Amino acid sequence: MARPLSPLLPSTRQRLDALFAGADAEAAERLLTHECGYNLPLVGDWAPEEIARLRLSALKVSGGDLDRLREAVALAKVDWRDLLMWAGFGHDASAHERWMPRGDTKAEDPAPGRDDEEAALG
To answer: Residue 4 and residue 2: Cα distance in Å, rounded?
Structure first.
């Protein structure tokens, strides 16, 4: 029997709403609830808070772009550990809790390991 869908936690909803609006927000929510949850490999009996780590990873790398969100979810379906690394959440199990989208959603965090000055220089 298929496991029921896991609704978004309030913390995930807050970040989704900061990145997406209108029809895009609805599409992003659908994508996360239907395709980025208990259907992922090796997730099994995870708590909703553990699922949120994967969903926040996908939101972070999306930068507010639905195509990038789809790409992130597709990666999670293959190996969600790669998604955690892409988002910068792979080495710290609570890093996703501290992440909040910036006001300019198209300018996400610089690449891991680069400081702000280096990122500004390109």
So the answer is: 6
* pLDDT tens-digit readout, 54-113: 999 999 999 999 999 999 999 999 999 999 999 999 999 999 999 999 864 443 444 444
The whole-angstrom separation of Cα 78 and Cα 7 is: 22
| Angular region, 44: left φ>0, alpha ψ -120 to 50, beta rest | left
- Residues contacting 40, CB < 8 A, separation 6+: 54, 76, 77, 80
User: In whole angstroms, what is the distance from residue 12 CA to residue 29 CA?
Assistant: 10
First vs last Cα of the chain: how many Å apart? Answer: 50
d(CA 13, CA 52): 10
Q: Is the pLDDT of residue 114 over 50?
A: no
Place of tokens 């970040």: 15
Alpha-carbon radius of gyration of the chain = 14
